[in-house]
Write a structure and sequence with these properties.
This protein has strands spanning 5-6, 14-17, 46-48, 57-60, 63-68, 77-78, 83-84. It is mainly β.
């Protein structure tokens, strides 16, 4: 079975959905504790691998790509509704 999530860099706190992931589905291809998707996640979109606190960095490619608008839970879809620019 193909893994559902790609983690690009070991320090990333988000992974990339390799295909559409359904809410409740276990995320595969990640290290650590098992995580289930908390929402439907479109293919190529980000999914949180750990809890990310409000105004904390969202890390992809080993780099900060923005800040959490509010607390993001492991398994949440990460997109414009909960991700903001570092510039505000």
């Amino acid at each position: 079975m193909e893994e559902s999530v790609l983690v690009i860099h070991p320090s990333d706190n988000v992974g990339i959905a390799k295909r559409e992931i359904q809410a409740g589905e276990p995320l595969t291809g990640i290290q650590g504790s098992p995580i289930r998707a908390r929402a439907n996640i479109p293919a190529s979109h980000k999914v949180a691998l750990v809890e990310i606190g409000e105004n904390r960095p969202v890390i992809k490619y080993g780099e900060t790509i923005g800040l959490a608008k509010s607390k993001i839970l492991a398994g949440d879809w990460v997109h414009t509704h909960n991700l903001k620019s570092e510039r505000g």
